[in-house]
UniProtKB/TrEMBL annotation:
InterPro entries: FmdA_AmdA (IPR004304)
Protein name, UniProt field: Acetamidase/formamidase family protein
Organism: Halomonas qaidamensis
Gene3D superfamilies reported in the protein's UniProt record: Acetamidase/Formamidase-like domains (2.60.120.580)
UniProt-listed PANTHER family: FORMAMIDASE C869.04-RELATED
Protein backbone atom coordinates (compact mmCIF):
# COMPACT_ATOMS: atom_id res chain seq x y z
CA UNK A 1 0.00 0.00 0.00
CA UNK A 2 1.32 3.39 -0.98
CA UNK A 3 1.63 6.26 1.45
CA UNK A 4 -1.21 8.51 0.34
CA UNK A 5 0.16 11.89 1.37
CA UNK A 6 2.86 14.23 0.14
CA UNK A 7 5.85 13.44 2.38
CA UNK A 8 7.02 17.04 2.07
CA UNK A 9 3.88 18.29 3.80
CA UNK A 10 4.40 20.00 7.14
CA UNK A 11 2.92 18.18 10.12
CA UNK A 12 0.19 20.37 11.57
CA UNK A 13 -1.21 20.71 15.06
CA UNK A 14 -4.67 21.43 13.70
CA UNK A 15 -6.23 20.40 10.39
CA UNK A 16 -9.45 21.91 9.05
CA UNK A 17 -11.29 19.60 6.65
CA UNK A 18 -13.47 21.14 3.95
CA UNK A 19 -13.33 18.36 1.39
CA UNK A 20 -15.54 15.31 0.83
CA UNK A 21 -15.11 11.99 -0.93
CA UNK A 22 -17.36 10.81 -3.74
CA UNK A 23 -18.73 8.41 -1.10
CA UNK A 24 -15.91 5.90 -1.62
CA UNK A 25 -13.18 5.47 1.00
CA UNK A 26 -10.09 4.75 -1.08
CA UNK A 27 -6.76 4.12 0.71
CA UNK A 28 -4.93 4.89 -2.55
CA UNK A 29 -6.40 8.40 -2.80
CA UNK A 30 -4.57 11.42 -1.31
CA UNK A 31 -5.21 12.17 2.35
CA UNK A 32 -5.23 15.52 4.09
CA UNK A 33 -2.75 16.51 6.78
CA UNK A 34 -0.63 15.14 8.24
CA UNK A 35 -1.82 16.08 11.70
CA UNK A 36 0.38 15.68 14.75
CA UNK A 37 -0.09 12.79 17.11
CA UNK A 38 -2.21 14.53 19.77
CA UNK A 39 -3.45 17.18 17.33
CA UNK A 40 -6.97 18.18 16.41
CA UNK A 41 -9.22 17.90 13.36
CA UNK A 42 -12.18 20.18 12.70
CA UNK A 43 -14.72 19.64 9.94
CA UNK A 44 -18.04 20.97 8.74
CA UNK A 45 -19.74 17.73 7.79
CA UNK A 46 -22.45 17.13 5.20
CA UNK A 47 -25.63 15.14 5.86
CA UNK A 48 -25.41 11.40 5.25
CA UNK A 49 -28.07 8.90 4.17
CA UNK A 50 -30.94 10.97 2.81
CA UNK A 51 -29.34 13.50 0.53
CA UNK A 52 -26.52 11.31 -0.79
CA UNK A 53 -29.08 8.52 -1.30
CA UNK A 54 -30.94 10.67 -3.85
CA UNK A 55 -27.74 11.91 -5.51
CA UNK A 56 -26.84 9.23 -8.08
CA UNK A 57 -23.32 10.51 -8.80
CA UNK A 58 -22.29 9.59 -5.22
CA UNK A 59 -21.21 5.97 -4.91
CA UNK A 60 -21.67 5.02 -1.29
CA UNK A 61 -24.87 6.32 0.26
CA UNK A 62 -23.12 8.95 2.39
CA UNK A 63 -20.83 11.93 1.85
CA UNK A 64 -17.96 11.75 4.34
CA UNK A 65 -14.90 13.93 4.81
CA UNK A 66 -11.60 13.27 3.05
CA UNK A 67 -9.47 11.10 5.38
CA UNK A 68 -6.71 12.74 7.42
CA UNK A 69 -3.22 11.27 7.82
CA UNK A 70 -2.15 10.92 11.50
CA UNK A 71 1.54 11.27 12.32
CA UNK A 72 3.02 8.02 13.60
CA UNK A 73 -0.03 5.84 12.93
CA UNK A 74 1.12 2.52 11.51
CA UNK A 75 -0.77 -0.58 10.42
CA UNK A 76 -1.58 -2.57 13.56
CA UNK A 77 -1.94 0.51 15.76
CA UNK A 78 -5.12 2.22 16.88
CA UNK A 79 -6.20 5.84 16.96
CA UNK A 80 -7.90 7.23 20.06
CA UNK A 81 -10.44 9.81 18.91
CA UNK A 82 -11.67 12.17 21.60
CA UNK A 83 -14.87 13.83 20.39
CA UNK A 84 -14.43 17.34 21.71
CA UNK A 85 -17.48 18.97 20.13
CA UNK A 86 -20.46 18.23 17.87
CA UNK A 87 -22.86 21.01 16.82
CA UNK A 88 -25.79 20.80 14.42
CA UNK A 89 -25.78 23.58 11.80
CA UNK A 90 -28.79 22.53 9.71
CA UNK A 91 -31.92 24.59 10.29
CA UNK A 92 -34.12 21.78 8.99
CA UNK A 93 -33.90 18.29 7.56
CA UNK A 94 -36.15 15.54 6.24
CA UNK A 95 -36.12 11.78 6.61
CA UNK A 96 -38.27 8.69 6.69
CA UNK A 97 -38.60 4.99 6.05
CA UNK A 98 -37.49 4.08 2.53
CA UNK A 99 -38.12 1.74 -0.36
CA UNK A 100 -36.05 1.17 -3.51
CA UNK A 101 -38.05 1.37 -6.75
CA UNK A 102 -37.16 -1.28 -9.30
CA UNK A 103 -34.87 -0.36 -12.18
CA UNK A 104 -32.97 2.53 -10.60
CA UNK A 105 -29.77 0.69 -9.62
CA UNK A 106 -27.30 -1.99 -10.55
CA UNK A 107 -27.75 -4.36 -7.64
CA UNK A 108 -27.43 -1.81 -4.82
CA UNK A 109 -29.22 1.57 -4.71
CA UNK A 110 -26.69 2.95 -2.20
CA UNK A 111 -23.70 2.19 -4.42
CA UNK A 112 -24.73 1.95 -8.07
CA UNK A 113 -27.64 4.23 -8.99
CA UNK A 114 -28.65 4.28 -12.66
CA UNK A 115 -31.09 6.03 -14.96
CA UNK A 116 -33.54 3.41 -16.28
CA UNK A 117 -34.23 5.43 -19.45
CA UNK A 118 -30.74 6.19 -20.80
CA UNK A 119 -29.10 3.41 -18.71
CA UNK A 120 -26.38 5.75 -17.41
CA UNK A 121 -24.67 4.44 -14.27
CA UNK A 122 -23.97 7.15 -11.65
CA UNK A 123 -25.66 9.80 -13.81
CA UNK A 124 -25.21 13.50 -13.25
CA UNK A 125 -28.51 14.94 -12.09
CA UNK A 126 -30.22 18.22 -11.25
CA UNK A 127 -33.21 19.41 -9.23
CA UNK A 128 -36.36 20.33 -11.12
CA UNK A 129 -39.40 20.98 -8.94
CA UNK A 130 -40.35 19.67 -5.51
CA UNK A 131 -41.23 16.14 -4.45
CA UNK A 132 -40.01 12.60 -5.02
CA UNK A 133 -39.60 13.05 -8.79
CA UNK A 134 -37.53 16.24 -8.44
CA UNK A 135 -34.12 14.65 -9.14
CA UNK A 136 -33.70 14.51 -12.94
CA UNK A 137 -31.06 12.93 -15.17
CA UNK A 138 -28.93 15.54 -16.96
CA UNK A 139 -28.77 13.37 -20.09
CA UNK A 140 -32.47 12.56 -20.60
CA UNK A 141 -34.33 14.60 -17.95
CA UNK A 142 -35.98 11.46 -16.57
CA UNK A 143 -36.61 11.29 -12.79
CA UNK A 144 -33.92 9.18 -11.14
CA UNK A 145 -34.86 7.93 -7.69
CA UNK A 146 -32.88 5.00 -6.30
CA UNK A 147 -34.86 5.60 -3.10
CA UNK A 148 -38.38 6.74 -2.26
CA UNK A 149 -39.72 7.81 1.13
CA UNK A 150 -42.59 5.53 2.17
CA UNK A 151 -43.47 7.50 5.29
CA UNK A 152 -41.49 10.60 6.12
CA UNK A 153 -41.29 13.98 7.77
CA UNK A 154 -39.67 17.38 7.52
CA UNK A 155 -38.37 18.72 10.84
CA UNK A 156 -37.05 22.15 11.77
CA UNK A 157 -34.97 22.96 14.85
CA UNK A 158 -34.93 25.73 17.44
CA UNK A 159 -32.00 28.16 17.58
CA UNK A 160 -30.17 26.02 20.16
CA UNK A 161 -30.73 22.84 18.12
CA UNK A 162 -32.13 21.12 21.19
CA UNK A 163 -35.76 20.68 20.04
CA UNK A 164 -37.23 19.82 16.67
CA UNK A 165 -40.78 19.99 15.33
CA UNK A 166 -42.17 18.23 12.27
CA UNK A 167 -44.06 20.52 9.92
CA UNK A 168 -47.15 20.27 7.67
CA UNK A 169 -47.04 20.01 3.88
CA UNK A 170 -47.25 23.72 3.12
CA UNK A 171 -44.29 24.49 5.40
CA UNK A 172 -42.27 21.56 4.03
CA UNK A 173 -42.86 22.95 0.54
CA UNK A 174 -41.73 26.42 1.59
CA UNK A 175 -38.56 24.96 3.10
CA UNK A 176 -37.94 22.90 -0.05
CA UNK A 177 -37.81 26.09 -2.10
CA UNK A 178 -34.58 26.98 -0.26
CA UNK A 179 -33.44 23.44 0.48
CA UNK A 180 -29.67 24.03 0.43
CA UNK A 181 -30.03 27.00 2.78
CA UNK A 182 -32.13 25.19 5.37
CA UNK A 183 -30.00 22.06 5.24
CA UNK A 184 -26.83 24.22 5.55
CA UNK A 185 -24.93 22.17 3.00
CA UNK A 186 -21.16 22.86 3.24
CA UNK A 187 -19.60 24.48 0.17
CA UNK A 188 -17.79 21.28 -0.83
CA UNK A 189 -20.88 19.09 -0.68
CA UNK A 190 -22.26 17.77 -3.97
CA UNK A 191 -25.47 16.17 -2.72
CA UNK A 192 -29.07 17.10 -3.42
CA UNK A 193 -30.74 18.04 -0.15
CA UNK A 194 -33.49 15.66 0.92
CA UNK A 195 -35.53 18.74 1.80
CA UNK A 196 -36.38 18.85 -1.93
CA UNK A 197 -38.63 15.82 -1.36
CA UNK A 198 -40.75 17.81 1.19
CA UNK A 199 -42.23 14.79 3.06
CA UNK A 200 -44.84 15.63 5.70
CA UNK A 201 -46.60 12.48 6.89
CA UNK A 202 -46.57 13.22 10.64
CA UNK A 203 -46.71 16.98 11.26
CA UNK A 204 -46.77 18.49 14.73
CA UNK A 205 -44.47 15.91 16.34
CA UNK A 206 -42.05 17.31 18.95
CA UNK A 207 -38.53 15.80 18.93
CA UNK A 208 -35.54 16.00 21.28
CA UNK A 209 -32.14 16.35 19.63
CA UNK A 210 -29.09 14.42 20.80
CA UNK A 211 -26.47 14.79 18.07
CA UNK A 212 -23.86 12.14 17.33
CA UNK A 213 -21.71 10.85 14.47
CA UNK A 214 -23.05 7.96 12.43
CA UNK A 215 -19.69 7.71 10.64
CA UNK A 216 -16.44 8.09 12.55
CA UNK A 217 -13.33 6.01 12.11
CA UNK A 218 -10.36 5.13 9.94
CA UNK A 219 -9.93 4.30 6.27
CA UNK A 220 -10.44 0.69 5.19
CA UNK A 221 -7.50 -0.98 3.45
CA UNK A 222 -9.23 -1.37 0.09
CA UNK A 223 -11.63 0.95 -1.77
CA UNK A 224 -15.05 0.62 -0.16
CA UNK A 225 -18.30 2.61 -0.41
CA UNK A 226 -18.48 4.61 2.81
CA UNK A 227 -21.86 3.45 4.14
CA UNK A 228 -20.74 -0.16 3.57
CA UNK A 229 -17.68 0.08 5.84
CA UNK A 230 -19.28 -2.23 8.41
CA UNK A 231 -20.19 -5.89 8.66
CA UNK A 232 -23.90 -5.46 7.99
CA UNK A 233 -24.03 -3.04 5.07
CA UNK A 234 -20.71 -4.42 3.84
CA UNK A 235 -22.43 -7.77 3.29
CA UNK A 236 -24.29 -6.13 0.38
CA UNK A 237 -20.94 -5.88 -1.46
CA UNK A 238 -20.31 -9.63 -1.41
CA UNK A 239 -20.75 -10.92 -4.96
CA UNK A 240 -22.35 -7.63 -6.06
CA UNK A 241 -22.79 -6.93 -9.82
CA UNK A 242 -20.95 -3.57 -9.71
CA UNK A 243 -17.26 -2.68 -9.57
CA UNK A 244 -17.11 -2.53 -5.76
CA UNK A 245 -17.92 -6.23 -5.34
CA UNK A 246 -15.82 -8.05 -2.73
CA UNK A 247 -15.50 -11.47 -1.14
CA UNK A 248 -16.40 -12.32 2.48
CA UNK A 249 -12.68 -12.62 3.23
CA UNK A 250 -11.98 -9.16 1.80
CA UNK A 251 -14.78 -7.62 3.86
CA UNK A 252 -13.48 -9.17 7.07
CA UNK A 253 -9.89 -8.15 6.33
CA UNK A 254 -10.30 -4.60 5.05
CA UNK A 255 -13.30 -2.94 6.78
CA UNK A 256 -12.77 -0.78 9.85
CA UNK A 257 -16.43 -0.49 10.97
CA UNK A 258 -16.44 3.29 10.73
CA UNK A 259 -20.17 3.29 9.93
CA UNK A 260 -21.71 2.40 13.29
CA UNK A 261 -24.78 4.62 13.83
CA UNK A 262 -24.24 4.18 17.59
CA UNK A 263 -25.88 7.06 19.42
CA UNK A 264 -23.21 7.06 22.15
CA UNK A 265 -20.60 8.27 19.62
CA UNK A 266 -21.22 11.85 20.68
CA UNK A 267 -19.41 14.79 22.23
CA UNK A 268 -17.36 13.67 25.23
CA UNK A 269 -16.97 10.04 24.17
CA UNK A 270 -13.63 8.41 23.31
CA UNK A 271 -13.49 6.05 20.33
CA UNK A 272 -10.54 3.76 19.59
CA UNK A 273 -10.39 2.83 15.90
CA UNK A 274 -8.10 0.29 14.22
CA UNK A 275 -5.36 1.41 11.81
CA UNK A 276 -5.32 -0.62 8.58
CA UNK A 277 -3.46 1.83 6.31
CA UNK A 278 -0.38 3.99 6.97
CA UNK A 279 -1.53 7.24 8.61
CA UNK A 280 -4.91 5.76 9.63
CA UNK A 281 -7.02 8.11 7.51
CA UNK A 282 -9.45 9.48 10.09
CA UNK A 283 -12.74 10.53 8.53
CA UNK A 284 -16.21 11.49 9.70
CA UNK A 285 -19.75 12.22 8.52
CA UNK A 286 -23.38 11.16 8.72
CA UNK A 287 -24.16 13.38 11.71
CA UNK A 288 -27.55 12.59 13.21
CA UNK A 289 -29.60 15.10 15.20
CA UNK A 290 -30.88 12.20 17.28
CA UNK A 291 -31.79 8.53 17.09
CA UNK A 292 -33.24 5.76 19.21
CA UNK A 293 -31.22 2.55 19.57
CA UNK A 294 -31.49 0.41 16.47
CA UNK A 295 -32.36 3.20 14.00
CA UNK A 296 -35.29 0.95 13.22
CA UNK A 297 -36.79 3.19 10.51
CA UNK A 298 -33.56 2.66 8.58
CA UNK A 299 -32.82 6.39 8.75
CA UNK A 300 -33.01 9.29 11.16
CA UNK A 301 -32.48 13.06 11.07
CA UNK A 302 -29.37 13.55 8.91
CA UNK A 303 -27.88 17.00 9.42
CA UNK A 304 -24.90 19.15 8.58
CA UNK A 305 -22.74 20.13 11.51
CA UNK A 306 -19.36 21.12 12.90
CA UNK A 307 -17.14 18.55 14.61
CA UNK A 308 -13.87 18.82 16.51
CA UNK A 309 -11.77 15.74 17.26
CA UNK A 310 -8.50 15.18 19.07
CA UNK A 311 -6.48 12.21 17.82
CA UNK A 312 -3.81 10.14 19.53
CA UNK A 313 -1.98 7.03 18.35
CA UNK A 314 -2.38 3.84 20.40
CA UNK A 315 0.56 1.57 19.58
CA UNK A 316 0.03 -2.14 18.97
CA UNK A 317 -3.76 -2.08 19.23
CA UNK A 318 -4.79 -5.75 19.39
CA UNK A 319 -8.19 -5.52 17.67
CA UNK A 320 -9.48 -5.17 14.11
CA UNK A 321 -12.52 -3.10 15.11
CA UNK A 322 -13.56 -0.15 17.29
CA UNK A 323 -13.84 0.18 21.04
CA UNK A 324 -15.84 2.95 22.70
CA UNK A 325 -15.62 4.63 26.08
CA UNK A 326 -19.09 6.24 26.24
CA UNK A 327 -20.16 9.07 28.50
CA UNK A 328 -21.05 7.88 32.00
CA UNK A 329 -24.72 8.68 31.42
CA UNK A 330 -24.76 6.52 28.26
CA UNK A 331 -23.61 3.36 30.03
CA UNK A 332 -26.16 0.62 30.84
CA UNK A 333 -27.02 0.59 34.57
CA UNK A 334 -25.01 -2.54 35.35
CA UNK A 335 -21.95 -1.26 33.48
CA UNK A 336 -21.55 1.96 35.44
CA UNK A 337 -18.53 2.22 37.78
CA UNK A 338 -19.25 1.31 41.39
CA UNK A 339 -19.78 4.16 43.83
CA UNK A 340 -17.81 4.56 47.05
CA UNK A 341 -20.71 3.20 49.11
CA UNK A 342 -21.07 0.18 46.82
CA UNK A 343 -17.35 -0.52 47.10
CA UNK A 344 -17.59 -0.28 50.89
CA UNK A 345 -20.38 -2.87 50.94
CA UNK A 346 -18.31 -5.06 48.67
CA UNK A 347 -15.34 -4.80 51.00
CA UNK A 348 -17.54 -5.88 53.90
CA UNK A 349 -18.61 -8.93 51.93
CA UNK A 350 -14.99 -9.69 51.10
CA UNK A 351 -13.98 -9.56 54.76
CA UNK A 352 -16.94 -11.68 55.78
CA UNK A 353 -16.18 -14.45 53.30
CA UNK A 354 -12.40 -14.25 53.20
CA UNK A 355 -12.04 -12.88 49.67
CA UNK A 356 -8.60 -11.30 49.58
CA UNK A 357 -8.91 -8.99 46.58
CA UNK A 358 -11.72 -7.19 44.79
CA UNK A 359 -10.58 -6.60 41.25
CA UNK A 360 -10.79 -2.97 40.04
CA UNK A 361 -13.18 -2.71 37.09
CA UNK A 362 -13.78 -0.13 34.36
CA UNK A 363 -16.44 0.25 31.65
CA UNK A 364 -15.68 -0.55 28.03
CA UNK A 365 -17.88 -1.01 24.97
CA UNK A 366 -16.67 -3.32 22.20
CA UNK A 367 -18.33 -2.96 18.79
CA UNK A 368 -19.49 -5.97 16.82
CA UNK A 369 -20.84 -5.95 13.25
CA UNK A 370 -22.16 -8.62 10.91
CA UNK A 371 -24.95 -9.32 8.43
CA UNK A 372 -27.51 -9.74 11.23
CA UNK A 373 -27.77 -8.96 14.92
CA UNK A 374 -27.13 -12.51 16.16
CA UNK A 375 -23.92 -12.73 14.15
CA UNK A 376 -22.96 -9.20 15.24
CA UNK A 377 -23.28 -10.26 18.89
CA UNK A 378 -20.96 -13.21 18.25
CA UNK A 379 -18.51 -10.86 16.52
CA UNK A 380 -18.58 -8.44 19.45
CA UNK A 381 -18.12 -11.20 22.02
CA UNK A 382 -15.16 -12.64 20.12
CA UNK A 383 -13.59 -9.21 19.72
CA UNK A 384 -13.97 -8.52 23.44
CA UNK A 385 -12.38 -11.89 24.23
CA UNK A 386 -9.49 -11.15 21.87
CA UNK A 387 -9.02 -7.66 23.27
CA UNK A 388 -8.87 -8.76 26.90
CA UNK A 389 -7.31 -12.21 26.41
CA UNK A 390 -10.32 -13.99 27.91
CA UNK A 391 -12.60 -16.78 26.78
CA UNK A 392 -15.86 -15.92 25.05
CA UNK A 393 -17.64 -17.70 27.92
CA UNK A 394 -16.12 -15.27 30.42
CA UNK A 395 -17.14 -12.28 28.29
CA UNK A 396 -20.69 -13.64 28.16
CA UNK A 397 -20.76 -13.81 31.96
CA UNK A 398 -19.29 -10.35 32.44
CA UNK A 399 -21.68 -8.78 29.92
CA UNK A 400 -24.59 -10.48 31.70
CA UNK A 401 -23.86 -9.52 35.31
CA UNK A 402 -21.88 -6.32 34.72
CA UNK A 403 -23.19 -4.95 31.44
CA UNK A 404 -25.49 -5.39 28.48
CA UNK A 405 -25.70 -6.06 24.77
CA UNK A 406 -26.87 -2.83 23.11
CA UNK A 407 -28.15 -2.41 19.56
CA UNK A 408 -26.49 0.31 17.53
CA UNK A 409 -28.20 -0.32 14.22
CA UNK A 410 -30.39 -2.98 12.71
CA UNK A 411 -29.56 -5.13 10.82
CA UNK A 412 -26.18 -5.76 12.46
CA UNK A 413 -24.25 -3.33 14.70
CA UNK A 414 -24.08 -3.98 18.46
CA UNK A 415 -22.13 -2.98 21.55
CA UNK A 416 -20.86 -5.44 24.13
CA UNK A 417 -20.70 -3.03 27.08
CA UNK A 418 -19.46 -4.26 30.46
CA UNK A 419 -17.12 -3.69 33.39
CA UNK A 420 -13.72 -5.12 32.49
CA UNK A 421 -10.73 -5.76 34.76
CA UNK A 422 -8.72 -2.55 34.74
CA UNK A 423 -5.50 -4.57 34.78
CA UNK A 424 -6.44 -6.10 31.41
CA UNK A 425 -7.13 -2.63 29.97
CA UNK A 426 -3.77 -1.43 31.28
CA UNK A 427 -2.03 -4.37 29.60
CA UNK A 428 -3.25 -3.23 26.16
CA UNK A 429 -2.71 0.49 26.71
CA UNK A 430 -6.36 1.45 27.19
CA UNK A 431 -6.57 1.77 30.97
CA UNK A 432 -5.66 5.45 30.89
CA UNK A 433 -8.67 6.24 28.68
CA UNK A 434 -10.99 4.48 31.12
CA UNK A 435 -9.52 6.39 34.06
CA UNK A 436 -9.81 9.67 32.17
CA UNK A 437 -13.39 9.05 31.08
CA UNK A 438 -14.77 7.77 34.38
CA UNK A 439 -12.54 9.55 36.92
CA UNK A 440 -11.29 6.24 38.33
Amino acid sequence: MQHTIDKSSTVQQHVVVQEFTNSVLDPNAPMLGPVKNGGTITANTAPGCWGPMITPRLRGGHEVTTPVFIEGAEVGDGVAIRIRDIAVTSIATASGHDSSPEGFCLGDPYVAARCPVCDTLWPETHIDGIGQDAVKCDACNNPVKPFEIVHGYTVTFDDDRTIGLTVPSNVATTIAQRADHYSALPPGSRQHSILNYAPSDMPGTLIRTRPFMGQLGTCPSMPMPDSHNAGDFGAFLIGAPHEYAITPEQLATHKTDGHMDIDAVRAGAILIAPVKVPGAGVYMGDMHAGQGDGEIAGHTMDVAGSVTLQVEVVKNYPLDGPVLFPLLEDLPPLAKPFSASEKAKGQQLAEKWGVENIEPLAPISVIGTAANLNEAIEDGLQRAATLLDMSVAEIRNRATINGAIEIGRAPGVIQVTFLAPLSRLDAIGLGGYAREQYDL
